[in-house]
Each structure stands twice: as C-alpha cells, then as structure tokens.
Amino acid sequence: LATQSKPPKNDRRCNFVLTFYREFAFSEMTVAIPNRALSSGIGTLQYAAPEQRYQKIYNCLVDIYSAGFVIFEAFYPLGDLGDRIRHFEVIRKKEKLPLDFQPALSEYCEKEKAARVTETIESMIKYDPLLRPTGNFLYSFVANFLFFSSATYST
Hints:
Elements (H helix, E strand, L loop, with lengths): L11 H16 L22 H5 L6 H15 L5 H14 L6 H5 L5 H14 L10 H13 L8
Helix pairs in contact: 1-3, 1-7, 3-6
C-alpha cells in the first residue's frame, strides 16, 4: 500500500474523513445480523438512527446512519446547535443533503468525486436500514474510489 496514491497531505479534512471511513468500515466488516438486539440508550440523540431512537431491536447499520451525519458535518459548516438541529431535521425528512453541500465538497475534491461522496452519504442516511450501505461497501468505496483512484493524489 505504501506505493499506492495518497490524498494531499495538506487537506486535513479529507484525511480525517478518509481515515474515519476506512477505520469505521474496517471495524464494521461483519455482516449485519437482522433483528439482533444491541445496546439501547447509548449515544447522541441527534446522530441516532430512526430504529435506534424508536425501536428496541436494531443492528450495526445504525452506525452507518450516524457516520453519514458525522461526515456531512466535517464538510459542511454549521453554526450553533440550533442550526445543526434544523439541518439534521430537514436531512432526516428528505433523506437528502442540502443542495449546496456538493459544491462545498467540491472545494476539497474533484466534482466527480464530490458527486459520488454525496450519493454515498445520502445512502448512509436512509430511513430504512436495509437501503444503507454496509461496512464492506464503505471500505471498498474508500479503498478503491476515494483513496487510490485519482492521479491527483499520486506521490
């Protein structure tokens, strides 16, 4: 892997997200077990998946949902807590990121990549957990598409 392409060293935000994606996806590479009861009442409510908030039975796909919001926040400037709550409520209802998210993300990567990252994050925040990507998909997405696919990132 040392000979593979790397993201620019000066782009801390992209490095954070790539590392987060890679480590998170790697730790979630197990297959989601349907209807397996996990811990309840743990975590931050604003990042919690719908099934974690309203049901007693859920699986590790709740973490995919939460990670979608964390990654969104890394690239989209939010003001105070009220601003964050308003944005999160709209995103939850529409299952879409704000229209100006992708252009904001384009400041950090190519437009094509910004579009794919936006699509991926939107799939992560789906209300139905069965429509969310798996940890395996996210790991592959980072490894193949984001982390190693661009000549822009060559060393």
